[in-house]
Structure formats: structure tokens, C-alpha cells
User: What shape does this take?
Amino acid sequence: DSGVTQTPKHLITATGQRVTLRCSPRSGDLSVYWYQQSLDQGLQFLIQYYNGEERAKGNILERFSAQQFPDLHSELNLSSLELGDSALYFCASSASPGPATDTQYFGPGTRLTVL
Amino acid sequence: GENVEQHPSTLSVQEGDSAVIKCTYSDSASNYFPWYKQELGKRPQLIIDIRSNVGEKKDQRIAVTLNKTAKHFSLHITETQPEDSAVYFCAASYGQNFVFGPGTRLSVLP
Assistant: This one.
């Protein structure tokens, strides 16, 4: 157990819908990273927050947004869902804001299925 | 931007043999290189990492080597066991985050 929690574990929804994925970082970690992993694909970095502020952006679609709250948990919002958004979504946390010399610990992931 | 290549994409070895996975990166500013193991449907788990001021690091059956000049780093697993079967990802630091390699699916045959 990495100490990073994610809810829900599974999510099944329809095209055009909106969902929210939640992540709580390890105790003491201020950075949260979101990744998308499609079937048999690598990990694509989406976005990073540090202590409530957006820190870095990767290949995140405009239909996706995220935020980090004062208690440091983070939410990833996915809207106007398409079939291709079906994937495993991981969050990871680390202590530092970067540069990335700090170990990232991954949560168990949320499996999103869009029908 | 940073580009990380990883080879081979699949690797099958007999139990007890060694396995080697190689990665190359493009950004000379990268200075931290973790390796993650991901079992089917589970989270990536850090197994070893190396920083740019070190050429080699070992942890029991796992070792990582780094050649900064050539911009490549490798994962070595000795005395492989069936439980080593998984997908292995290398990563290189890039600015605030990581760029991951595409992964290597390792199968250890009993």
C-alpha cells in the first residue's frame, strides 16, 4: 500500500457524461500528479498540482480539468466523455514540487469505462 | 521535449536467467531515472531509481546503470523468478514531472 488513495475503483458511464475522480495523497505529500493509461499503453502525464496550485500540464484535453483542495486531495473532472476516454486513471503523489527528483507513489487507479 | 525509448517491448526468459531492459532519453537536463513495475491491473510500483550523480545502483537482484554521456540507462534483474513477470516502465525526469517509456512486458517461464 503506497498510502495514496483513489475513488472510485471502477466507473462505468455513457458517452457525453461527466465524471469526477478523486485522489488523496500520502500524508505529508504536497504534489499530486494525474496520469492516463489506456489499454496496453504507457503512462501519459496529464497534470500536476502542488499545494493547491497547478504546476505542470501535459497532454490533458480541454474537456478534462483538475483541482487540488486545501486539504490536498485532488479531483480530476472528465466531461463530454468519449469512448476513447476509457482507461485507467492514476494519481501519484510526492513531497516536492519538482524538479522531478522526488519519488512518486501511485494510487491504485480508477478504471473508467465509457459505453 | 523529452523522449524516452525503451527496448525490448516484450522479453521472455527462463526462470533463473537474467533480464536486461534498456532505455534512452533525449534531454540532457534529465537527472532522475526511476523504474516501475506494474502487474496486471495494479498500480505502478517503484522498484529502483538512480540519480545522475551515480553510475550504478543495486538492490538485491535488481540493478540499474546509467550512462549520462550516451543518455541511456538499463535495468538488470538477476536470478529471475515467476513473480518478476510484469510490465516494467522506465522514466526520466523532465522539468516538473516524468516522461515514461512505453514499457517492457517481461515473462519469466518456469
Summary: Chain A touches chain B through 25 residues (CB under 8 Å). The first strand of chain A starts at residue 5 and ends at 7. Chain A has a mean pLDDT of 92.
